[in-house]
Amino acid sequence: MYAAAINIILTIVYIALGVGIGMVASIYFQYTNAVAMCLGGMFTLACGLLHSVFLPKKIRLPRQFTNQLNGEIEQLRLENEKTRAEFEEFKEQILEESRQREEKIVDELKDLAHSIAAFAAQKQARVDNITPLSTRPKRTERSLLAAVQEAIDASRVEIHLQPIVTLPQRRVSFYECFTRLRDSTGQLIMPGEFLKVAENSGLVAEIDNMLLLKCVQLARQTIRRDRRISLFCNISPTSLGDETFFAQFIDYLKQNRDLVGSLIFELPRDAFERLGLTAERNMGRLFDLGYRFSIDRCDSIDVDLRKLERMGVRYVKIAGNKLVQQLLRDGVRPITGLAREFEPQDVASLFARYGVDLIADRVEDERVIIEALELDLGFAQGNLFGAPRPLGEVIAPDTDGDILRKRA
């Protein structure tokens, strides 16, 4: 500030001296005004150049002030480093707390999943009246075969029912019948256990026939209670091809034609497509009596609708998630005699044109139902609507004794 004031004063002095020299040159030496102004200007310029040359290049601050300034700069640097260290420590603390919270949440979810699984296992064990698999002794093939044979001989072949509901109302419209065997201790023998040994020993036909007879007997009970409820009853190619059994079975159905609307016979798709001549002929005899059929375990919706209509098939079951995937995303369509493309929303109506209803099977969650409703499906089945339960928990027992004579 002081240096600037001194520079201004010296500049004014230089200008004043230049003006004075110009006036002296004009008045006393009789120079023209132009020459006088040039002389004054040259003097002022020379003074300015000299001032510039001899001006100190660097203004030195007092040592005390410089030391104070350096101290404050060092203090700011130290505070900055301290702040940075505190910030890094705070960041690590936040990350550690976040990791701990995530680990705690994961542990809680695992505990919840284990609790749900344990609860579900206990509930299923109570429903089926069986010992949980984790504590249940594993049967040998020989002991399992003996238990299956003993259950058949003692007529401990049970029916468990699972509802098939209408959409979107979710009103029970049908029940599907499942086979369960019970051993001498009262424990259930599930199909996953008994089917293999039964197939190897030739007992499947006896189990199928007993189930078929029990389904017919159950249909008689349901007629008395509610004619609107029909039963899906599995019929195997073995039963259809058994001339001795089927002759008695068809005779009974002829004498009880009122059962026509209460029974729907069901076959797996692969068995339906591999029917022998005898089984196909007997299936035709049931069709002529007015009975209808269902095809389940369809891995794909590319069924031949013309064949289904001709064979009396009125229902097709396909897993709900597969049905949605194939129609909405994979572009799979059934086989028809119509030469045009169909939108996913039109497929259910296309099935109906051939007299066939689509059923979304093995439905476990609501997401599948939402998409099934977009496809205009009329029926669904799965644990979401109810797992298979013993007959006594669904329909009160009302037996009339044996409806057919057992085979010798």
Describe the fold and architecture.
- This protein is an alpha/beta fold.
- Helices cover 57% and strands 14% of the residues.
- The chain contains 15 helices and 10 strands.
- It has helices spanning 2-27, 33-54, 63-128, 141-153, 191-201, 204-225, 237-240, 243-255, 269-273, 277-289, 305-311, 320-330, 347-353, 366-374, 391-394, and strands at 157-166, 172-182, 188-189, 230-234, 263-268, 292-298, 313-319, 357-361, 379-381, 389-390.
- An 8-stranded mixed beta barrel has the order 1-2-4-5-6-7-8-9, surrounded by 5 helices.
- Helix 1 (2-27) packs antiparallel against helix 2 and helix 4 crosses helix 5 (191-201).
- The longest helix has 66 residues, at 63-128.
- The chain starts with a helix and ends in a 14-residue tail after the last helix.
Helices and strands, with pairings:
Elements: H1 2-27, H2 33-54, H3 63-128, H4 141-153, E1 157-166, E2 172-182, E3 188-189, H5 191-201, H6 204-225, E4 230-234, H7 237-240, H8 243-255, E5 263-268, H9 269-273, H10 277-289, E6 292-298, H11 305-311, E7 313-319, H12 320-330, H13 347-353, E8 357-361, H14 366-374, E9 379-381, E10 389-390, H15 391-394
Parallel strand pairs: 2-4, 4-5, 5-6, 6-7, 7-8, 8-9
Antiparallel strand pairs: 1-2, 1-9, 1-10, 2-3
Helix pairs in contact: 1-2, 4-5, 8-10, 12-14
Secondary-structure element sequence? HHHHEEEHHEHHEHHEHEHHEHEEH
Distance between the termini: 129 Å
**Low-pLDDT runs:** 120-134, 398-408
Radius of gyration: 49 Å
Average pLDDT reading? 79
Approximate strand percentage: 5-15%
Work out the helix count.
Answer: 15
Largest sheet: 8 strands, mixed, barrel
Give, in spatial order, the strands making up the sheet with the most strands.
1-2-4-5-6-7-8-9
DSSP strand tally? 10
- Helix and strand content put the structural class at alpha/beta
**Any idea what the shape is?**
elongated
Q: Can you give the helix content as a percent range?
A: 55-70%
